[in-house]
């Protein structure tokens, strides 16, 4: 029974590693910035799952705590980056709106 458990844990760790690499390709190639943010968020989630699998496989309970802290930092990072993107887009939209109203005033 122990061999089956070890085999399943090893297989799941390898599958997660391959999925992380595939998602990394999406993060690099993603056509838009938002695609890249989502891909990095998915990678972080899979890293947390990988840590949990390794925690069970190695019998080290502290890795679960590390995974929880990593998940919280990952969430905070995505929230901050999303906020920066929204702020940047709002400023860009305001500048574009200002240019259009300025053009109309000079054209009239």
Give structural notes:
The chain is mostly helical and 108 residues long. The protein has one domain. The chain is 93% helix and 0% strand. It contains three helices and no strands. Helix 1 runs antiparallel to helix 2 and helix 2 runs antiparallel to helix 3. The longest helix has 46 residues. It is elongated. The mean pLDDT is 90.
What class do helices, strands and sheet pairing give?
mainly alpha
Number of domains: 1
Q: Please report the total strand number as a whole number.
A: 0
Number of helices: 3
Q: How can the largest sheet be summarized?
A: none
| Integer average pLDDT | 90
Morphology call: elongated
Distance between the termini: 83 Å
Gist of the model:
By secondary structure, this protein is an all-alpha fold. It is built from 3 helices and no strands.
Summarize the SSE layout with pairings.
Layout: H1 2-29, H2 33-58, H3 62-107
Helix pairs in contact: 1-2, 2-3
Name its key features:
mainly alpha, elongated, 108 residues, 93% helix, 3 helices
């Amino acid at each position: 029974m122990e061999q089956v458990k070890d085999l399943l844990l090893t297989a799941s760790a390898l599958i997660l590693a391959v999925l992380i690499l595939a998602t990394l390709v999406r993060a690099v190639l993603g056509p838009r910035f938002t695609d890249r943010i989502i891909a990095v968020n998915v990678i972080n989630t899979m890293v947390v799952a990988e840590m949990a699998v390794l925690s069970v496989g190695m019998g080290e309970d502290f890795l679960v705590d590390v995974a929880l802290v990593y998940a919280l930092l990952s969430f905070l990072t995505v929230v901050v980056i999303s906020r920066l993107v929204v702020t940047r887009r709002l400023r860009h939209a305001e500048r574009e709106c200002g240019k259009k109203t300025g053009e109309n005033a000079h054209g009239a």
